[in-house]
Structures are given as structure tokens and as C-alpha cells.
Amino acid sequence: MNRKESEVFLRLDPARLPQHIAIIMDGNGRWARRRHMPRVAGHRAGVTSVRSTVETAARIGIPALTLYAFSEENWRKRPKTEVDFLMRLLCRYLKAEIRTLNENNIRLRYIGRKHELPPVVQREMAEASEATDSNTGMILTLALNYSARSEIVDAFRSLAEAAARNGGLDHLEVTEQAISENLYTRDLPDPDLVVRTSGEMRLSNFLLWQLAYAEIYVTQTLWPDFRGTHLLEGIEEYQKRERRYGGLGQDPGHSHEHAVPMAHAESKS
Ligand code: FPP
After folding, report:
1. Whether residue 223 has its Cβ less than 6 Å from ligand 1
2. What strand order describes the sheet that includes 215-218?
3. Rounded to the nearest whole angstrom, what is the distance from the C-alpha of residue 163 to the centroid of ligand 1?
4. Distance CA 22, CA 266 (A)
5. How large is the C-alpha radius of gyration of the chain?
6. Closest approach atom of ligand 1 to CA 142
């Protein structure tokens, strides 16, 4: 950890670290434009940010980190040259990073419709995750060709298919738990904190079900400028928030409100 990181880290409460952090990496294009460089230069610079963020998260003991690397919409709406560049960058990252991931005891996983990615990318992905499979530390999940709505559609389809195999509609189980257990993230806790870089106030179809109660931290920093220190600053901000999950919180000033009927209570979610 560098000096700035240690300074912020010392202000954190190690007992209240988020168990799962999700990051929307945004601003690569703007970073490049400000430097009169092609957009892809921003993506290339973004890899250094990925490396720094992943290492810091693992070192301070964050159990799960999920990075939104590539959405289904990116795939359809960006020029082919940019998409191809991102695919090559990803393959290079996967190859180059296995050693660092292993040194930091990190397991690599993916969410998204993998089967729609080019076969060569799928092979690199499988190799990298297999190479880190026996690690026991942080779970790093890359969202690739990911869309939260598609994920929910896929979850409902697998529920319906399970019911069909099991004797029909009478066996269709639609509960929150059943839906959660059929999402791509079934083995992960819901994120406590979602970070978005470059100042945009949107979720952009990322983990819509799982982020129901997450704290949102938006920083103006563009993704290629983002480092471990910025992550720690986000965690510091998270630790200042009071999480209520729709309840009334810990503030003693609220205690009398418990008698207020729900229909009249101020919305606290
Ligand atoms: C958003 O910036 C970023 C992306 C669409 C791609 C993210 C990819 C990386 C950070 C590098 C590769 C990732 C891995 C995991 C190796 P934007 O292009 O939408 O920026 P803009 O909004 O400023 O145009």
C-alpha cells in the first residue's frame, strides 16, 4: 500500500468493510478525448486501474468484487473496431493477470451471456478462471456481455424449465429466494456498495435485482485515473452511511415513529 492508501485505510473500520463491491467502470472515452487520443487508449489505460483496484480490494480483505467490463449494449452499439479492441485487451489481461491473481489468492469468475462471446475469448476466460479455481480469497467477477434484464429473463426461464421437468406449472416456484438462486450471481452476497466513476448517476442495466439495498457512490474520477486509493475513499464514504433496508434506522430521535402506521410513515427506503 502506498502512503495515500495507508492514510485512508487507517480511517476505515475493518469490522464494517463491504462484503461485496460492484463497480461500473466509466469514462475511458472521455479520458482519451481530453488527451486527444483515440477512445481505445482510454480502455488500455483502464487496465492499470483494474489492476490497482483488484489488488487493493484483495489486500484489505474484501470478499467479493464485481467489475462491469462489457455490457450487452456495448456489444451491439459500439463500432466493431472498438469491440474487437476490447476483446483483445481482455484476452491479454486474462493471460497476463493469472500470476498476480494467484499471488493475491483471487478466484476469477464471470457473469453475462458468455456463449455469445467469440470462442477464442471464451477459451481464454475458461483457462484463466480454471487457473485460479483453487484460490480461497476474494472472488473477482467480470461482467462480460452482461445485462441485468437478460439475467432476470434467464433466471425466469430456468425456473420455468425446472418446473416443466418437475411435472408442470404446479411446481413453478416464484419467490425472491428462488429468483436469487437462479441469477448468475447465485453464489455471491448482494453488493453492499456500488461505485460508478466519471460522475454519471445511472445503473446502466447492472445488477438491478442485487443492488436493491446497495449504497451508491459516484465519483467524478474517470476510470483510467481510478486507483486503490479511490476505492478506499468510496469505502470510507460507505462507512459514513446509515443503512436502513427500509426500516427507521438507529437514530434515537426516530424511536417514537415506530407507533406510526405504515401507510402514514414517511418513506425511509
Ligand atoms: C466505459 O468507458 C468502459 C468500457 C465500456 C470498457 C471497460 C473496459 C476496461 C476498463 C478495460 C478492460 C477491462 C478488463 C477487465 C481487462 P466509456 O468508453 O463508456 O467511456 P465514455 O463514457 O467516457 O465514452
Report:
1. yes
2. 107-111, 139-146, 64-71, 20-24, 193-196, 215-218
3. 39
4. 29
5. 20
6. 15
Choice from 23, 24, 26, 195 to test ligand 1 binding pocket (greatest atom count within 8 A of CB): 26
Cβ of 50 below 6 Å from ligand 1? yes
Give the distance (Å) from ligand 1 centre to CA of residue 191: 21
Provide the annotated active-site residues: 26, 74
- Please answer whether residues 217 and 168 qualify as being in contact, where contact means their C-beta atoms are separated by less than 8 angstroms: no
Entry pTM: 0.91
Cβ-contact 172, 185 below 8 angstroms: no
The CATH number that domain 17-146+191-241 falls under is 3.40.1180.10
Q: What is the pLDDT of residues 77-109, one digit of tens each?
A: 899 999 999 999 999 999 999 999 999 999 999
Ligand 1 atom closest to the Cα of residue 71 is: 5
Do 269 and 246 touch, CB atoms closer than 8 A? Answer: yes
Note the helical H segments in the chain. Answer: 3-10, 28-34, 39-59, 72-77, 80-103, 119-131, 148-165, 176-181, 228-240
